[in-house]
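From the thread on structure requests for the teaching lab: each student submitted one protein with a one-line request. Submission from student K.M.:

"Model GntR family transcriptional regulator from Paenibacillus durus, tokens only."
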Amino acid sequence: MFELDVRSRKPIYEQLTDKIKEMILYSILQPDEQLPSVRTLSAQLTVNPNTIQKAYRELEREGYIYSRAGKGSFVSPAQQGMNAAKRAEVREELLRLMAEAVYLGFTAAEIGELFKLALEKKGEGDQT
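Reply posted by the TA:
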């Protein structure tokens, strides 16, 4: 379910939070779906439970998940509305970057190729 790159300079808890966010944004994890327990995920990834707990705390702080005492952590249903806000934010950033790319001389074909590469990369992520 989760793969971490132990050679990455990015901290493990950040890798985990990014992966869970990605799975929520791509609807791999559904609203109110229970996440693996800290102990289970810790054993599965051979990572210190405190690292998993830190990732879950960060996700909860950002509103991606919520926890119930004695029950575990779950995907927040409020994410559906947040997805629209996130899409608008990404759209604005893409427009800014594309304008900069055009200014620097990128052609429509080059920008199209970059889009195709992004789709291929997304396809690779779907296989994990």
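TA comment: The CA atoms of residues 19 and 27 lie 12 Å apart. The chain has two domains: 12-77, 80-126.
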